Amino acid sequence: MGPIPGDSGKWAETRVNLGKNLLTALNLKPVAWNTPHYMASATDYGAFKKIFPLHLDRGAYFSTGLDGTKYVSNQMLPYVIQKDVYGIKRLPENLGYVEMGVDPNNNPYGFTPVPPIMPADMLKGALANKVVRDGWASFYFHPDVDLVHLQTLVEGVRAQGYEFVAIPTNGVIN
What we know:
Blueprint: H1 9-25, H2 42-51, E1 54-56, E2 60-65, E3 68-74, E4 89-91, H3 119-129, H4 147-159
Parallel strand pairs: 1-4
Antiparallel strand pairs: 2-3
Helix pairs in contact: 1-2, 3-4
């Protein structure tokens, strides 16, 4: 995997500014960026940083091998990253998201079958993050997933001693 044809910093900047302007027109003030499914090129991350110096996501990191650019991994760290390889400050999303799985017998789009990831799995990750001082437990929740799973997650992380906090409107996190 790597950059798609036509990828450029200008293209990415234009798309992000379009979205930001739409939100602003609705009297919403975006203060951080979340890369869709964490997948973007290094060029795109540079463009995102110009508009949003604070990101609430995992970064995708690439290496170049003999066969070209290949996706390596994304960060699932339990703490704030002050400055990553792209120069971005990241508030980590480190528990993932509820994934109901892809049933190989009912798969009209040909997706690769994946096992489900349920709140109990994510809560194990939250518990593991508690070994780190100032650790985070954060996740993404898709709007089409049954809200009972969100309730389980919220109650579960709170029971572990975590507290939900808002990102300051100025986007500054120490």
